Amino acid sequence: MTRTSRIFSVCCIATSFAFSFPAGASDNSPDKHASSALWRHRGNIESLNLFYGIGGKDRQPVGKFTFVKEDNSGSSPKFEVVDGRGVHWKVKLGAETKSETAATRLVWAAGYFTDEDYYQFEIEVKNLPKLKRGHEFTWADGVVRGVRLERIVKEQKKIGNWSWFKNPFAGTKELDGLRIMMALINNWDLKQVNNAIYRLNGTETRYVVSDLGATFGETGDAFTRSRSNPSDYSETSFVQKVTPDHVDFNLKSRPFFLSAIHVPYYVERTRMQDVVKSIPLAHARWLGKLLGQLSDQQILDCFRAAGYSPSEIAVSAAMVKERIGDLNRF
Fold it and tell me: By three-state DSSP, how is residue 287 classified?
């Protein structure tokens, strides 16, 4: 493909994206009878099991799976299954399975709500039809390889999406800590559609970054960014600029300049970079103190749980540890 063809292709993709994003903020303000939550202290952080994550060992999927339905939303192949205990799971395939599994564990350890994700090298799915997407990950007899399983929580209902720039937590150390976490894990896909508001049993409204797949790679435009690439991740920089009161972190998402003709897409992608800018130093120190309680083994476990190779685990964990150290040097 020539460079001209690649540019034309990207612009066409940008056109389709430009009209698929929600216009403006749609916070869906929580019910006045339900408390709103973004963050919760994990207590003794040193005791957290980051191999199993938020769901723990007891809630991991068990037994053979039975196909329920295909999910055609988003950019990654997905379908729903039910496991041997009758629990429903969303299976995700493709490039984001490992990175999302690792990211949920680290974000959860910092005190934020995440989906219950587990990675499995291979599962067997009964009644698996020919998929519209992701058939390259399926084999004979219903074998599917390289999967992320997200528990479908029936007590939890999605009621909307929230904006990084308009939400009930603006200016708090907890929101700023989440903004820093996005830079720490190199999440370049900070679209509003990836931020979910969940109502849990009608008693609590949770604000969650519900898609953490575009992480642990290089941030940038459509030509340069990557995900789930430890080598790329290790070569990126974390801190961009420090002033006496604030710090800017690195996160590149501005599209290739020809995409500027598609204004909504260009503006949203460019504005994503502001999510990790102008963070009060005090809030960065607060998050650094929290993450500094994690042991080397806990950080390694995030990537072990995600199915990375030993060398990839070492590289990724070293970069996370280095970035936590940066936060604690402010």
Answer: helix
CA 187/CA 24 separation, integer angstroms: 21
Nearest-CA neighbor of 243 among 280, 216, 276, 214? 280
- Confirm if 106 and 320 have CB atoms less than 8 A apart: yes
Scan for tokens 């460019």, then name that residue. 270
Other residues' Cβ atoms within 10 Å of the Cβ of residue 235? 11
Judge contact between 105 and 168, C-beta under 8 A.
no
Between CA 274 and CA 224 the distance in angstroms is 19
Tens digit of each residue's pLDDT (9 = 90 or more) over 174-187: 999 999 999 999 99
Q: Does the global pTM surpass 0.70?
A: yes
The band of 142, judged by pLDDT with boundaries at 50, 70 and 90, is very high
The residue assigned the tokens 């970079």 is: 273
Cα–Cα separations (whole angstroms), residue 6 to 3, 9, 223, 258: 5, 5, 9, 11
Residue of 154 and 51 predicted with greater confidence: 51
In this structure, is the dihedral angle defined by the CA atoms of residues 198, 200, 205 and 210, taken in order, positive or negative? negative
- Structure tokens belonging to residue 77: 């192949």
Q: What is the dihedral of CA 277, 237, 216, 20, to 10 degrees?
A: 40
Q: With helix as H, strand as E and coil as C, how does 133-179 read?
A: CCHHHECHHHEEEEEEEEECCCCEEEEEECCCCCCCCCCCHHHHHHH
- Residue ranges of domains in the chain: 25-327
Coil, strand, or helix at residue 77?
Answer: coil
Residue 156 CA to residue 200 CA, distance in Å, equals: 5
Round to whole Å and give the CA distance between 279 and 13. 32
CA distances from 80 to 69, 113, 115, 148, 290 (A): 5, 22, 15, 11, 35
Structure token digits, residue 93: 């395939």
